[in-house]
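Human: For the file, kindly provide a plain-text protein record giving the amino acid sequence and the backbone structure tokens, at your earliest convenience.
Assistant:
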Amino acid sequence: MFPTNPLSKKLYLIGVVVIFLSVYSQYFIRYGSITGYLVVYGIPVLVVSLLFGKQLLHRANKNNKDAAKFGLGLFGVLIMISLLLSIIVLAIITHFDPHAANLLNKPNPVLNVPSNVAWLMIPVSILVVGPAEEYLFRGFIYGGLLSIFRGRYWILLAAVSSVMFASVHAYYALTYGVASALPFIDLITFGLAMSIAYYWSGGNILVLALIHGIYDATDFLGVATRSQIGQAALLVMIFVGIGFAAVYLPKKIAMRQTPNPSVPPETQPPPNPPQM
């Protein structure tokens, strides 16, 4: 999974700076819809492709079955964990500020669009947003770190890249204030799910992009129709994920803990602890 010649730290830093500058520029410059997508997604994708694209695309559609099993399974489990953490954090926040929960009644800045635009955003989420964000954040941000560190500290790097993924969604902090902790929990846990699936699948982006796109599309489906329909679609996705988790994740964790019989006992590395 990791190239013989790892990505240099200098090139990685250039890519990260380009990604964050492109994303944060929209807070200072008013773009049109098409121009905004070209700046926020187009420029970073172009730069990342020049820096690391060959390595990313070489692995992007490999191990699709593993990516689907682990991607959906981890999605289902970590989204449920995210919901539980959000309830706990909301209780803590409202204990200190009883009015903080009212901030969540503000319209979501991404979903505050008319229904005809929401219908358009469903295919855009699946075909543009999901693929671009997985390419940039799982492929380059996380994959670049894995390359630099040659696969070591992969779970720690998954957490770091997930925080970086969440940090580009600064509009939640601007909109919800202290209550933005809840959407950021969701973003970080989702990032972790996709990052671990990326690692376990050997660098697959194609399937993870589809999962990401459909996940985002459920929100716009709720805007285009009724919120209950969007929530039902999301629940179906979560329950499917939990089903995949129940079948495949215990096997994966057991495999990671099973010693390699081809290695003599005295040289056998200690088994990895479960990472979930």
Residues 260-276 have pLDDT under 50 and may be disordered. The chain has one domain: 53-254.
